Amino acid sequence: MKDPNGAVLCIDIGGTSTKAGIFEPWGELKPLGSIPSRGPAASFAGALETLMTEAAAAADGPVIRLGVAVAGFLDEARDRMIYNSNLPWLEDFPLRARLAQHFDGPIELEVDSNAAALAEYYRGSGQGSSRFLCLTVGTGLGVGMIVHGHPLRFAYGCMGDPGHVIVQPNGPLCTCGGHGCAEILVSAPRLAEEYRRAKGIAEECSLRDVIEAARGGDKAAIPVLEHAGEWLGIATASLANTFYPDRIAFAGGLAEAGDLVMHSVERAFDYAAGTFTKKNVQLERARLGALSTLTGAAYAVLTNRED
């Protein structure tokens, strides 16, 4: 889907960082900078407006729409984020109204998990699927589903929060307040911390550092990714047994590890999923990779609430 009249300014507000980009009329996404996702909300909004101005200036032509992917639940009107345990300072902030003061054109807020699923459905691994499930693993675990071309919405603008399916009874405390959720067991900050403890190093590191170390054969990094893949595979099996997608894709930072994670995902899924489920579903990495959510912010506004 393209817009012949102008470009779309895309924003991806994640649990750790907020990214901006331009989706050009011919369908090309240009990532253009990021800022930390850090409160208070009014200060963040000011930094976001600056980022938007800089991104819009880099477009090759007019920017006529704004699509914003937000990590968390949205209110019924999709005007503001009302819950995210990783971004409590942004809850109930009138985000659409604030952005409308800075941007003169259609603005659409979308749950980030839906945005990633939309991008993969239109441009990536979800093309041709009737029931497409997309899992995005970053600071949290987002899950979106596209059914016959439309995002599945039955709670807070999305399909609820399946990333908090319980996979480890008596497991670690999650930011949501529960224990043993898939999200806490695969989240980027936790995996980075596990690696740091295993190595006995004091300096901070990121999931990207863990992935690079594992690619280099680091014997502390490889098990961290393999175990995360196992938890992700179990969670995916639970969701597949519930929603019966015909295709499942994995996006986000953890998916960038490729086979270092996916082999474990596939083994755990094959062990945990039901026979009928495994027979009728295809697993693959998201083709748009780490850019799926940012790309999906554009599709959220281009589809113009057709869902």
Short characterization:
This protein is α/β, with parallel strands linked by helices. Helix content is 37%, strand content 21%.
Tell me what you see in this structure.
The protein is of the alpha/beta class and 307 residues long. The protein has 2 domains: 7-116 and 292-302, 2-Layer Sandwich (Nucleotidyltransferase, domain 5); 127-286, Nucleotidyltransferase, domain 5 (2-Layer Sandwich). The chain is built from 10 helices and 12 strands. The radius of gyration is 19 Å and the shape is globular. The two termini are 15 Å apart.
List key phrases describing it.
307 residues, alpha/beta, Nucleotidyltransferase, domain 5, 5-stranded mixed β-sheet, 12 strands, 37% helix
Strand content: 15-25%
- Write down how many β-strands occur, each being a DSSP E stretch of 2 or more residues: 12
Distance between the termini: 15 Å
Low-confidence stretches: none
Could you report the average pLDDT, rounded to the nearest whole number?
92
How are strands sequenced across the largest beta sheet? Answer: 3-2-1-4-7
The total tally of domains equals 2
At CATH level 2, the architecture of the largest domain is 2-Layer Sandwich
Gross morphology = globular
Give the class from helix and strand content and strand pairing: alpha/beta
* Main beta sheet strand tally, sense and closure: 5 strands, mixed
CATH superfamily of the largest domain: ATPase, nucleotide binding domain
| CATH class term of the largest domain | Alpha Beta
Tell me the radius of gyration: 19 Å
- The name of the CATH topology of the largest domain is Nucleotidyltransferase, domain 5
Query: With helices defined by DSSP (H or I, 4 residues minimum), what is the helix count?
Result: 10
